[in-house]
Amino acid sequence: MEAESSFSHISSLIFDGQNYQLWAVKMETYLDALDLWEAVEDDYEVHPLPNNPTVAQIKNHKERKTRKSKAKAKACLFAAISTTIFTRIMSLKSTKDVWDYLKKEYAGDEIIRGMQSLNLIREFELQRMKDSETIKEYSDKLLGIVNKVRLLGIDFSDCRIVEKILVTVPERYEASITTLENTKDLSKIILAELINALQAQEQRRLMRQDRIFEGALPAKHQEYGKKKYFKKYQLSSNENTASNINQSKGRNSKRSCPPYQHCGRIGHPPFKCRKRPDAKCNKCNQLGHEAVICKNKFQI
User: Fold this and answer.
1) Which residues are registered as beta bridge partners of 287?
2) Residue 248: Cβ-neighbour burial (10 angstroms; 0-12, 13-18, 19+)
3) Reduced to 3 states, what is the DSSP secondary structure of residue 81?
4) Distances in Å between the alpha carbon of 10 and those of 6, 68, 79, 106, 126?
């Protein structure tokens, strides 16, 4: 049962060739917790037992003599690497040889590690916070780069991260930075305190934006209702105006016609004119007018 529990958490430590420094730190801690790191770190020799040995000395001597610890440590290393890497180290005999090979192959020498650290520091210096980013996203990105530098054995203090955040955040955080300058010594402020202060301002800003947005919704609906009412009113007014214009056009068209040459009036077509030349009066039997306007219709 103890052996099963010892190997139950090794699945999260599988090394596939990437991020060797991070894997090495985790693996060293894991083996040390199982009292197996000594078998990896030192290619020890089994010394004879002293006179009158204790029970613990006898047990330790037996484990070293039977190479039980080395076998466990080697089994842990084999279980914590991918199949591709295993085929390259399976012929190595001792646990220390396996560990040294992985370190040489993937950690690189001092020159390579120095170049990697310079590239990471350059990447850190070029970082700028985007307007779409939150302070947590930006700080996590910076810490990710810094942790890679630290895994290479380079000392990188939190003060540099604090200075980087103070000079690269957008202008919207200026109020919090000014408050910190007036109340604290920025050279001594810790990273967590700075991030919490900027996050507090960020949350207050988001809350104000939410209140403004909620207050703008009723006003927007009210404005929409007014626009809809005025649009309807304007439409009906335009329709009435159009009808009035059409009527006035009809009247104006009649008035704009020249008077008829026989009667001197307007507002009727020529064929309905009572004084047209072909009209014949029924009263006096004369041409040139109708009986309605005949002068003799009232004579007896």
Assistant:
1) 280
2) exposed
3) strand
4) 8, 19, 7, 20, 37
291 secondary structure, DSSP code:
G
* Nearest by Cα to 174 from 165, 127, 130: 165
CA dist 235 and 64 (Å) reads 100
Tally Cβ neighbours within 10 Å of residue 6. Answer: 16
Determine contact, residues 260/266, Cβ cutoff 8 Å. yes
Kindly list the averaged pLDDT for each block of 10 residues, start to end, along the chain of length 300.
51 80 87 82 66 77 62 86 90 87 82 86 93 91 91 87 91 86 84 90 81 59 58 58 56 53 66 70 74 64
Contact assessment for residue 187 and residue 159, using Cβ atoms and an 8 Å cutoff: yes
Strand blocks (E) in 179-267: none
- What SS3 state is found at 34? coil
Distances, alpha carbon 145 to alpha carbons 123, 168, 220, 236, in Å: 8, 16, 46, 68
CB 53 within 8 A of CB 142: no
> CB neighbours of 73 closer than 8 A, spacing ≥ 6?
31, 36, 37, 39, 40, 95
pTM over the 0.70 mark: no
What 8-state DSSP symbol labels residue 154? -
CB of 192 within 8 A of CB of 162?
A: no
Contacts of 57 (CB under 8 A, 6+ apart): 49, 50
Burial class (CB in 10 A: 0-12, 13-18, 19+), 244: exposed
The pair of three-digit structure tokens given for residue 264, joined into one six-digit string = 């001197």
